[in-house]
Amino acid sequence: MSVLQSEIAVGSEQFEQNKSALLTQIAEIRAIQNKSIEKSYAAKPKFDKRGKILPHERVRLILDADSPFVELCGLVGYGMHDDKDGSDAGGGILAGIGFVSGVRCLVTASNSAIKGGTISPMGVRKTLRIQEIAMKQKLPVVALTESGGANLTYAAEVFTDGGKTFANQARMSAMGIPQISVVHGNATAGGAYQPGLSDYVISVRKKTEMFLAGPPLLLAATGEVASAEELGGAEMHAQVAGTAEYLAENDADGLRIAREVLEHLNWKEQTHSLNESYKEPRYAIEELLGIIPTDPKQPLEMKEIIARLVDDSDFLEFKQEYDSHTVCGWSKIGGLNVGIITNNGPITTQGAAKAAQFIHLCEQTQRPLLFLHNTTGFMVGTDAEQNGIIKHGSKLIQAVTNCTVPKISIVAHGSYGAGNYAMCGRPLDPDFIFAWPNSHVAVMGSAQAGKVLRIVAEEKQKAAGMEPNAQMLDFLEQSTAVKLEQQSTALFNTAMLHDDGIIDPRDTRKVLIFLFKTIYESRARQLNASKFGVSRF
Ligand code: COA
């Protein structure tokens, strides 16, 4: 046993300052998340009048009571397109991993309480990411659909990637991943192909309106007059067109039928039995609040973090004496073996070589990897260059990319430059990546970026025989730094889908156990693939 010993002065002035600043930050993010929930619930009278259940409630009701649910990409699109303050964030869909009838599933719901559940450009990108997760983790998809299709204000941005979501649905069916859709209301055009490409469709009496063109468009396009019921009603699809396999009496009944379909999937019986007995960390996870500095430039000792995340705070460090900036070692999380790679500063040549070797060892016995980001990037300078930092850094990126073990990233503090790639940032395709509220991801520190552009501009002025214009250079430096700072924050990065969501640091262990179990389960599952997927004739 190698139990980590904490040296944190819990309750010190610095601890309390960190804690209060981080709690404020968490509250700010929660307030933004609540905006879209509040806006959705404001539509309750309209939904009540229509005899419908709100999208958030549909998600709540389909999930097994008191079971865990990890939301994915909740703040995607924050401050983009139609969104001003978070009210319209989320891309038009709710999504997450949870349990339905005991089956671990990917659950999605069109947020029809906002903009008719139409899909924004970031909503399409979110859907692609959700589908990537479903395919990689072999998760059945339950879609609670009610969508006006593409958000026509951004039609051109949605069109091509929207088509890719349908191709993915076809692929999933062929891979052997079941897709179940409940059509709670409107499913127009692209909105209709989503259930159409599902393996099981449940229509809801008097509520489903699933057609390629609704009455107004049909009239405008061909002059034909037809009712919504004739064109795409629930009975029509269940009894005439055969697009729906089940006819539900109302929203709640549709959810019940979906749960029954999952019950009969023959899915949960195949799950891998996972070791349930493990010890909690020796230090309280709440203490993370006082340990994490709000300023990304302040150092953070990552072994203090590991001590609060892993079973029994037990961490068998690898090559402790060989570079202290890169920390590698083995632990268990929720009883499951993991290799951890983290940083206490820049990645040096030695650190890169150590981490790459560690990855090879994890690969040898298929131990999943957890990356905890806390790096200012690869070391620069004459020494580093002469010691082959490019060569070693490249090999680390190669090892991270090509290793076949599952990978989860937590962006804990700063994550800069190619150091972000080497720590399995979004571009290197971790199975999951979540960020803490105060984390920063960027190509480099904002102040340094400002200085770089200043030097380049100053040199250019001098080369042109001009006297350097200090006022202009000051402005360039400051505006560049301010812009990059704004674009480094966790909120900015999550809006851009550079992660799968922001989590409260105190939830990290719970989330990691859930995600590692998801991964272990998927690795144990054999899919029954076919060439074309399930056809509906
Ligand atoms: N693109 C952009 N915005 C749309 C939209 C679309 N396809 N469909 C609806 N909206 C917007 C509305 O303008 C309205 O915006 P607001 O809240 O800012 O006023 C909001 O979504 C809600 O629309 P509303 O019609 O009031 O809601 P509803 O619940 O009564 O009906 C629909 C929702 C989707 C059934 C209905 O709006 C509709 O039929 N839309 C057109 C669908 C279509 O033809 N899509 C083709 C896509 S290729």
Write the layout of secondary structure elements.
Elements: H1 13-41, H2 44-49, H3 55-62, E1 70-71, E2 93-100, E3 103-110, H4 121-137, E4 141-147, H5 155-175, E5 179-188, H6 190-196, E6 200-204, E7 209-211, H7 215-222, H8 228-232, H9 234-241, E8 246-248, H10 251-263, H11 288-291, H12 302-306, E9 316-318, E10 326-333, E11 336-343, H13 349-364, E12 369-375, H14 382-386, H15 389-402, E13 407-416, H16 417-422, E14 432-435, E15 440-442, H17 446-463, H18 470-486, H19 490-495, H20 508-524
Parallel strand pairs: 3-4, 4-5, 5-6, 5-7, 6-8, 11-12, 12-13, 13-14, 13-15
Antiparallel strand pairs: 1-2, 2-3, 9-10, 10-11
Helix pairs in contact: 4-5, 13-15, 17-18
The structure holds coenzyme A.
Coenzyme A binds near residues 149, 150, 188 and 189.
Describe the structure in your own words.
It is a single chain. With 537 residues, the protein is an alpha/beta fold. It folds into three domains: 256 residues, 2-enoyl-CoA Hydratase, Chain A, domain 1; 194 residues, Alpha-Beta Complex (2-enoyl-CoA Hydratase, Chain A, domain 1), CATH 3.90.226; 42 residues, no CATH class. Helices cover 43% and strands 17% of the residues. Strands 1, 2, 3, 4, 5, 6, 7 and 8 form an eight-stranded mixed β-sheet that branches. Helix 4 packs parallel to helix 5, helix 13 packs parallel to helix 15 and helix 17 packs antiparallel against helix 18. It is globular and about 75 Å long. The termini are far apart. The site of coenzyme A has 15 residues, from strand 5. Its EC number is 6.-.-.-. It comes from Acinetobacter sichuanensis. This is Acyl-CoA carboxylase subunit beta. One of its GO terms (molecular function) is ligase activity.
